[in-house]
């Protein structure tokens, strides 16, 4: 077998693009990568009407991000310009200025859940607990220099601690930001993150989360099959491998998580619990649909 190396294959020295408005920003970036390479000088001519604002914006972005590793930045800008749609499809709609990892994880869980309806109908939802205690090495409180009035600060503590669900917490967080300003101090953000984790933990039936180096322990009486299903939504296989179940004692060990910095522990756990909570709500809805069905055994229940 003989291999022939063509050093200049797929390299253009002159490229003419008529009506670049018909192409997306990412497509223009890919075409730009074909013009010139190494010692070869290349030129790209884009023919368009000067009044097209979208083209001007795309050209400005391409000019701004032209160095090594620019692909990610261009992709992010393309998302802002064209909007984001389904994670697992090609449809695009709406607009976005930022996408946090937790937001992507939530969207991914929603998309994948549609493909796993049989499991959702078979597995029973997790029961709630009265309260979830969290003990992680992270500095989380409302700084005095952020909410200076002592009585108001205690009131904010009380309202945050009594937020019943994710929507209430989000609304309260927005109100706090409007009253005392954004961006919030990191300690304040972490306090809100812990409250959010407690909301998820309560819904999932987790009574305690505690850092115990080198691991993190969770008092969580969850069936092995249910845990396997929930962790299947985690994108990174290394994250899935961290979960070790002790069914007899109703405890989950997150191997090696205690070695991470406190902020990293909160970030990962918050993202995971958000995904698990979304799945658990899907299981509750599936159980409700099955219970209201006029046909016994409908919905994939095992006999």
UniProtKB/TrEMBL annotation:
Q: Which UniProt keywords apply?
A: ATP-binding, Helicase, Hydrolase, Nucleotide-binding
User: What region holds the Transcription-repair-coupling factor C-terminal domain?
Assistant: 135-232
Swiss-Prot/TrEMBL GO biological process terms: DNA repair
Domain of life of the native organism: Eukaryota
Q: What are the protein's GO molecular function terms?
A: DNA helicase activity; hydrolase activity
Any idea what this protein is called? Transcription-repair-coupling factor C-terminal domain-containing protein
What species was this sequence derived from?
Rhodosorus marinus
């Amino acid at each position: 077998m003989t291999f022939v190396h063509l050093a200049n294959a797929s390299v253009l020295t002159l490229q003419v693009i008529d009506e670049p408005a018909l192409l997306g920003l990412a497509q223009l970036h890919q075409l730009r990568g074909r013009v010139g390479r190494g010692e070869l000088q290349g030129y790209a001519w884009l023919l368009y009407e000067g009044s097209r604002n979208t083209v001007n914006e795309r050209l400005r972005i391409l000019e701004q991000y032209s160095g090594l590793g620019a692909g990610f930045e261009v992709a992010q800008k393309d998302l802002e310009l064209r909007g984001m749609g389904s994670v697992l499809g090609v449809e695009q709609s709406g607009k976005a200025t930022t996408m946090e990892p937790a937001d992507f994880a939530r969207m991914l869980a929603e998309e994948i859940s549609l493909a796993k309806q049989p499991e959702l109908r078979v597995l029973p939802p997790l029961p709630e607990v009265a309260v979830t205690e969290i003990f992680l090495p992270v500095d989380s409180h409302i700084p005095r220099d952020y909410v200076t009035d002592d009585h108001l600060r205690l009131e904010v503590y009380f309202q945050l601690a009594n937020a019943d669900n994710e929507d209430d917490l989000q609304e309260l967080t927005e109100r706090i930001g409007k009253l005392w300003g954004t961006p919030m101090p990191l300690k304040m953000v972490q306090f809100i993150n812990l409250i959010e984790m407690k909301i998820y933990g309560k819904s999932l039936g987790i009574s305690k989360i505690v850092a115990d180096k080198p691991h993190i322990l969770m008092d969580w009486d969850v069936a092995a099959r249910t845990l396997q299903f929930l962790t299947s939504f985690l994108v990174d296989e290394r994250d899935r491998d961290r979960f070790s179940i002790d069914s007899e004692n109703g405890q989950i060990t997150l191997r090696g998580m205690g070695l991470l910095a406190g902020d990293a522990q909160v970030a990962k756990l918050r993202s995971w619990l958000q995904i698990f909570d979304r799945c658990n709500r899907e299981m509750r809805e599936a159980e409700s649909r099955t219970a209201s069905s006029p046909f016994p055994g409908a919905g994939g229940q095992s006999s």
